Amino acid sequence: MNFLNDDFALISTADGELLVGEGPFTEFSQCPRDGVAFYKNDFALSDSKPWKVPKQVHRLKADALQDFVSPNVCWQAPEAGGFARIFSEINETIQTGGLEKSVPVATECGVVESGLVRGLLGQLADHRKPFYSYAWVEGKNGFCGQTPELLFQLRKGRFKTMALAGTARASDRSVFAFDEKEIREHEYVAQTLVANLSDLGMVKRSERRIMDLGELVHFHTPLEIFMYGDQSIDFLLRKMHPTPALGPHPRTQETLEMLYRWRNELEAPAYFGAPFGVYDNGVFHAVVTIRGVYWSGNEIQVPSGCGVIEASRLTNEWRELELKRNAVKARFRI
C-alpha cells in the first residue's frame, strides 16, 4: 500500500469496500462520462475543477488500514466568546425575519505531539453502517472522517438522500423522541428537502426515525426520488448543497453569504460540511463531510456545527457542539 504515502482519495462503498484513487489527479470542470472520478470541493463550491480523476484505482477491504495508529494530540478548547457573538447575530436576524435557521461552526484545534497524522486513517477500517468513511490526502494537508450523512446516491434514475438533524446523547434517547425543539429542527430540514426535490420527480418520504451512532443519536428521515428525467450530477450537487441540515433556511444568496462570513469568522475548515463523492462507471455516491478531522502539517482541527432556530438556547447549542467533537475524538482515538 505504498500509494497511501502519497496523494490519494478514499471513500467507502455500499458493499463494504474502500474505493481508493491514487494520485496524481487530473482535474476536470464536469463529471466524466465513464471511469472513476472523485468529487472534492470546499463548502462554498469555489473550485472550478472539482472532479479529480486518479492515476489508478484500488478496491480494498477495510482491514487494509488496520495497521495505521492514531497520533497523540495536545488539544486547546475553543473560546466561547466568538461563537456567542455569532449566535446572537443569528438570533437577531431570525427576530427581524431575515432568516429562520442557520448553522454556525465551532472548531477545536490541536497539535500532534507524537505519531503521524496519517495514522488517523486506521480508524476508517471500522466503517460499519450507518457510517461512511472518507479521506483526502494531499502532501501534508488532508482530512478524513466517518460521516452518517449521505448527500445523495444516483443510480439509474433513482435518487436517494436523507434528512439528518436533531441531536442528543444516546443516554437521552427516550426523552429525545419527544423533544419539540429537536423535532422542529429536523422538520425544517426534511420538509425543505421534499419541497426542493419535488421538481425532480416523485418524492417518497419515509417515517422519521432515530439513528443510533453510539455516543449520539439523531433524527433521520430517508428520502427517495424516482426522477422524471436525466439531470447532470453537477446540477444535482449544486441543488443539494448545502443541505438544510448544514445551510441556511431559506437558502438565498444573501443568507448563504451570511453563513460563509460566520464560518470564516469562526475559522471553520473550508472542507467541513462540503460534498465529497465518487463517480464509478455510471453510479454516483456522495457524502457530507461531517464527523471528521482536518489537518495541515502537525496542526489538526475537529469542527462541529449546530442548527440554530428561534427556539435554540446558547448553552444547549454549545453543549451539543462539544458532544459532537468529543464523539469524533473518541472515534479517532485522539
TrEMBL record:
Taxonomic superkingdom: Bacteria
Gene3D superfamilies xref list: Anthranilate synthase (3.60.120.10)
InterPro entries named among the record's database cross-references: ADC_synthase (IPR005801), Chorismate_C (IPR015890)
Pfam (any one): Chorismate_bind
Domain (Chorismate-utilising enzyme C-terminal): residue spans on this chain: 83-324
Protein name (record): Chorismate-binding protein
